[in-house]
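Data card: per-record layout.
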Amino acid sequence: MRVAVVGAGSWATTVACLMAQNAEVTLWARRAEVADDINENQLNSRYLPGLALPANLRATSELQAAVASSDVIVMGVPSHGFMEILERMKSWVRPTQMISNVLPGHLAGVLTGPNLAREIMQGQAAAAVIATEDLHVARALQGLLQSGLFRVYVNHDVIGCEVGGALKNVIALAAGLAEGLGTGYNTRSMVITRGLAELSRLGVAMGGEPATFSGLAGMGDLLATCVSRHSRNRYVGELLGQGRSLDEIISEMNMVAEGVKTSKAVLELGRRHEVELPICETIHRVVHEGATPAEAYAGLLQRAPGHELESN
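The structure for this 312-residue chain is written out next.
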């Protein structure tokens, strides 16, 4: 089976390495120097410095060369560039919502879970979920991805897995913000737990299944992203809490903290489905409306608490 991995960031490269143990894999890199580094040195020095890649993994900076003859295409690009890449691909590929709109007839799925790229590349035990509506396809992809101590489960709840994977980045900004402000573990635990409640409520309102949010795609992914020193979103939140400006933080980073852009879409989804999202609203005020972290947290803590299983 021939696989194309579109994107060459830390997670896309990690997925390509896992699949290269079971299939012929070509990774597409936007930057030619990244593709050359992979092909010539078995390294991705820009995004995974110091970690050797499989010798049989090939890379290219030509998108058509990567996807035209592939049986499986794995999208590993940031969400804000997703549609642009799909539009470029649609005339080359053979017969989640965005994929279905641009490439009708192609089954969409999502790979998610508590998956920090560097830890997986170092061979540490980890688990993920591959979600598609067709479990026969999910099980085929399970076989492609599973390798060594990397365990892959299947799930049919595509919506729930997608919502968990997107919203956790916004909550991780909040967890980092709390850390940057110097709060204790009680406060950070409160943020993560109430954040899980927010993403669960929105996910269920959008058609996801409640059990998904207590699993790897929900609580598992949220915990890893909120507490790890390797988490980009937690890191951005921490620096914001310390008083750094967002523009300054982003300019110093090689990789994308998706929660910054996702926070806008999350609020729109909350309004559309009539779900209150106080933590996500707080993060939006900090990153897009000029509120200081201290002001945002003061406002959040002034909300009157209600029933834990029903209230916001």
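Known properties of this structure: The domain at 2-155 is CATH 3.40.50.720 (Rossmann fold). The radius of gyration is 19 Å.

See the next section for split statistics.
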